[in-house]
Design brief:
heterodimer; A: mainly alpha; 3 helices; globular; B: alpha+beta; 3-stranded antiparallel beta sheet
């Protein structure tokens, strides 16, 4: 478990969450991913359920961004 | 250990939108080798990092749609989408390879995602959005 890399993601993620809230975007999915990431780090590994949740969130975000303007 | 540091800084092209100036997203991905395999935990870490990146991109797109930033953002986003749309097939492959512990192919696709992220950086920079990617030790 690369703790420094995880902390880097969480710190940067919190910055993005702040921005999302500022522009009125839905910050909940990003918060959930960060929470799950921290939980996984605490447990030392990731469960298949956590991985599936992360992937579902990411897929939804990519699809949203990739939709035509 | 080699790391990829991808920093998205939307500051330069988003004049007039103070909130978006503050977006700064970094993903750190260790370069993979067979001896540094892509485990489910590592995959989750990478996908979480990319999620944060896309959360930032969503904020950019939302502000563009709502007209909070210059209209040129539409063309810029469209240019970046050419490359972000290539990510899902890679992720699908990568997830399958990791699930099957096919490390040879997992490592290959993982590094393709890293290369694609670098391409996205270049395209976004051409559109006025500064994305700095650094590959170092």
């Amino acid at each position: 478990m690369d703790v420094l890399a995880i902390m880097d993601i969480i710190v940067k993620g919190l910055g993005v969450v702040s921005t999302l809230i500022s522009v009125g975007a839905n910050a909940a999915p990003a918060i959930k991913v960060l929470t799950d990431l921290a939980t996984g780090a605490q447990n030392g590994t990731v469960t298949p359920e956590q991985l599936a949740q992360t992937e579902a969130t990411l897929d939804a975000m990519i699809a949203d961004f990739n939709a035509p303007l | 250990m080699k790391k990829l540091l991808l920093v998205i800084a939307l500051a330069t092209s988003l004049g007039g939108c103070a909130e978006l100036r503050n977006i700064g997203t970094a993903i750190s991905l260790g370069t993979t080798t067979i001896t540094n395999p892509v485990t489910p935990t590592r995959l989750n870490q990478m996908e979480s990092a990319i999620t944060v990146v896309f959360a930032g991109l969503q904020a950019w797109k939302k502000s563009c749609v709502e007209g909070l930033i210059p209209a040129s953002c539409k063309a810029q986003i469209a240019q970046v989408q050419v490359y972000t749309r290539q990510i899902p097939p890679y992720l699908t492959q990568l997830r399958t390879f990791v699930k099957n512990n096919d490390q040879v192919n997992a490592v290959t696709v993982f590094n393709q995602v890293v290369t694609l992220a670098d391409t996205i950086k270049s395209q976004a920079a051409a559109g006025g959005v500064t994305i700095t990617a650094t590959v170092g030790n």
